[in-house]
Design brief:
Length: about 100
């Protein structure tokens, strides 16, 4: 399902989905991966981190189908991405978005 002109809002019949994606990157590729992630529709933040994972990404999409598309057809296929672990948000207290 394409994500053309994606806006992180509720759509009729679907509820917006937020998730955190933890990434393992190939050696020396973290900053390249993070830069590419920041350009993807649906990605709110992408940060290189120190610790168990190399990067943490916050995503907000209109539906679970769009999350699956983002994960499998965009993030997982980026050069330098070795492995992803996704955590779907089940309770969110934000600024109303």
């Amino acid at each position: 399902m394409p994500m053309h002109g994606l806006t992180p809002q509720h759509q009729k019949g679907a509820m917006a989905v937020r998730a955190y994606v933890l990434l393992d990157c190939a050696s020396g590729k973290t900053h390249q991966v993070v830069s590419a992630l920041r350009e993807l529709p649906g990605v709110e933040t992408a940060d290189a981190v120190a610790g168990t994972y190399d990067a943490i990404v916050s995503v907000h999409v209109a539906s679970m189908a769009q999350l699956v598309d983002l994960l499998t057809h965009r993030i997982a296929l980026l050069p330098g991405v070795v492995h992803t672990t996704t955590h779907v948000v089940v309770e969110y207290q934000g600024n109303g978005t």
